[in-house]
Amino acid sequence: MTVVLIVVVAALVVALVAVLVRQRTGAVRPPARELRPSTHRILFPFVASALSSPALDAALRLARAEDATLVPVFLAGVPLNLPLESPLPRQAGVCIPLQEAIEQRAAAFGVPVDSRLERGRTYRHALRQTIANEHFDRIVVAAAVNGAHGFGPDDVAWLLEHAPGEILVLRPGAEDQLMPAAPRPRRGRSLNGRRAVRDRDPVHS
Q: CA-to-CA distance for 122 and 77, rounded, in angstroms?
């Protein structure tokens, strides 16, 4: 009986140690799902100092339903007196917080994001460049409301005539805007290329 009791106690100890090891290593919790880019891409152009929260949510719901990657594209207007590739510090202060807000919202939806920036002399010019340079299946845009930043009737008509694929236009309420947080002093992200990427230099003034 003593030998049997020792064997039983030893087995219980081994089982307890195994449970503790699994808990410490996190094996009892399923790993978080990695968001991997999809071949299906939904283009989400936006402009200026605010973007439409309902339009963003609509794009994210569509991306989640179709297992697609959301491609938010900040359209940066460059004055004619500056080279097209000039640093844009003021617009960087707007673009970066908005892109971060989009990425946070997309993470809540479980949607992968591939953020972009496109320059142009006008928003329509930047939109034309976007259509020419990006691969996408659908476009979701927010129409301007009461003078708020967005795409006006002429831009929407131009988009419907010239852009390929399916186009979804939403007209949100004037109060339905996702505003960026106040810019914080930071190093590392600039608008010196087509993409808003991290580098070692601060945004130029």
A: 5
